[in-house]
Amino acid sequence: MASYDVEAVDVVKGYLDEMLAAVGAISRTDAIEPAIQKSDIAAVIQKFYDAQIFDSDHDDKKSLRNAIIETVVRDAFVALLVRTSTSHDRRTILTEH
Q: 53, exposed or middle or buried, with CB in 10 Å at 0-12, 13-18, 19+?
């Protein structure tokens, strides 16, 4: 994922990276089951709630918070698609030849 010049986006990106690493450590397979429980990553989730960028429930802060999270998650999703697509393309090429 890209680095941003917006500190809040970089902070949330770090939290998301940490959360995904924690989930990866818990579930080492591609299987859906067993499900990851919220309690498994509670410490990282708490960091989101404790972050100063999330210190207000005013509508303008909610909009900012949602925009920050959307930006970070969208980039993570696109990176996942690229990795998955590239991996799939390699497997297809190897099996076809």
A: middle
Cα torsion 77, 74, 12, 4 to 10°: value is 110
pTM: 0.67
Residue 52 tokens, joined: 């100063």
pLDDT in tens, 32-64: 777 888 888 888 888 877 876 666 666 677 788
* Domain ranges within the chain, ordered by starting residue: 7-96
Place of tokens 């990282």: 44
Spatial CB neighbours of 41, under 8 Å, sequence gap ≥ 6: 19, 22, 23, 26
